[in-house]
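Session log. Operator J.P. requested a structure for one protein chain; no other inputs attached. Running the standard single-chain path with token output.
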Amino acid sequence: MIPNLPFEDKINYRTLYGKLFSVLVIRFGATHVSEIEDAIQNSFLKYLKIREQNNIPKNIENWLFMVARNDLLNIIKRKQKEDYNFSIELTEDEKVEPYETDLRLQTILFISSLNSLSTQSKIIFILKNIFGLSMLEIRESTLINQEAIYKSINRTKKKLNIDLNCQKIEINSVTANQNTISIVEEILYAVFNIGFDSFNEKSENIVNKDLCLESFVLTRLLYNKFNYTSTSNLLAVIYFHISRIPAKIDNGKLISFFNQNRDKWNKELLTMAFHHIKKPQNSNKYYIEAIIISKYMAKKDFNLKDWTEISYLYEMMLEISQSPILRLNYSFCLSKIGKTDKAMNILSEVQNQLPDHHLYFSLVKAIIMKESNPKKSHDIILTLSNKMNQKIRKEYLKSFI
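Structure written below.
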């Protein structure tokens, strides 16, 4: 049973896009990714027009699927007339079942299982086409520049075109081994993190609840389907984070983790988080991360022994992954146990791995320098705050001065 979540379960544009993409790519094959993207965009444009006329269909998802499917058939027909070498068996006359099935997880598993694609290209392609993430969001998540992301997506489309050669996807043939599951977990956690720390300058929202919910639901499906220990620990991490969403904002102000009102944390979700922590046979980053978060959330005040233990856990994680964000968190913990010089050395190394003016990097650097160089720390925070358009984040940054 799923506890009450701190956000509503509702359909949104990104969800619809991913569901339409999945069902069309399975039905018509991954060879037609570009045509499928065009057909889905056209179906949304047509929907916006009829919505303006207050002519909204009863089943929006099914209506969008029918429109996109018919549009895709027309695109393929035109392509066949223009290119005699192009051929595909069309299914125009088949009975169209109501569009009810969510095939996103199966599609993610299928693409993640393809040996011909690199892990990075799989992740970028799925973030773009299943979750409808923007180039900016993918760049923030992967730390890859925008031009490289475009090139990766185009290369993946061409690769799918060549490798699959107009074949329909046999979704039930997917073999989900540990490597495939690991890629899917990485994707789902990336989506959750993008949603949990939303940088939407146009709104005052600091959590994209839709993305968090999509990630949560699909992670639960993945765990229920394959029952991997690593997925259970990822689920624990997600439960921990969503349990404190109600405390992230208080009186319109963004509250840092250590200053949150813990009475607002969702106890039911916290219980589920601890329930899903499972010790793996081999080192696993989600298990270690779940342990770290459980320590953060179990105590309000930390002593030297606590920070030393957490620093050690980060060292264990860094043996598995050299993520720059992990190294930032590690440097923060080092500063808490008096190893400020080592923390600053790590920051110097990490800086070259991150885009210029990376927000989290600058914030961690300012916090670590607060005692040793308060003037420099103050200037960093002020510069960050002045660049921020979002009022709630601007005020949040000033709270560190």
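Operator note: The chain has a mean pLDDT of 86.
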